[in-house]
Design brief:
Order of helices and strands: EEHHEEEEHEEEHH
Number of domains: 1
Structural class: alpha+beta
Helix content: 10-25%
Radius of gyration: 17 Å
Distance between the termini: 33 Å
Strand content: 25-35%
Bound molecules: zinc ion
Largest sheet: 7 strands, antiparallel
Amino acid sequence: MSGEPMRLCSCCGELVPLSELEYSFAYPDAYYALDEAARFAPGTRCNDNFCVIGERRWFVRGVIPLPMESGDMYRIGAWAELSADDWRTVWDSWDERGSDLLPPLVGTLANHIPSTYEASTLGLNLTLRLHDQTRPSFHFAGTGHPLEREQLQEITPHRARYFTGLGSGDKA
Ligand SMILES: [Zn+2]
């Protein structure tokens, strides 16, 4: 038997299992776009949390929180591109306490969510907030993009399942 909790969906009145798997990208799109040789070039490296391309593009992994009408939080795992200085700030504070108190940073979304919106999500302006216990969170304001509306409003359990159904996001 599945132990997944169920949530009542307002779009259809059905009970929908709340998936524990969330949609996420393993790398920034710019890193996916590199061929094997370029990924091993000096100054380029990626791990689970940080990515650098050619010592000139700087990325941090975080989440796009999407509040659900059930009161749960769905999180899309994605990457933000930051300035070198701000990237360094995140790097330095990663294992430190007090990250919650740091001012938000500005960046751009470094992943395109496929098949979902007419306009790409790549390059959307965001603010990045640091947290002590969890990955940084990305928040949109003034983008006019429907993803921002989904973040400000609440998504249904079916919408959450839709995102999960997009797969791992891993194009590598
Ligand atoms: Zn529904």
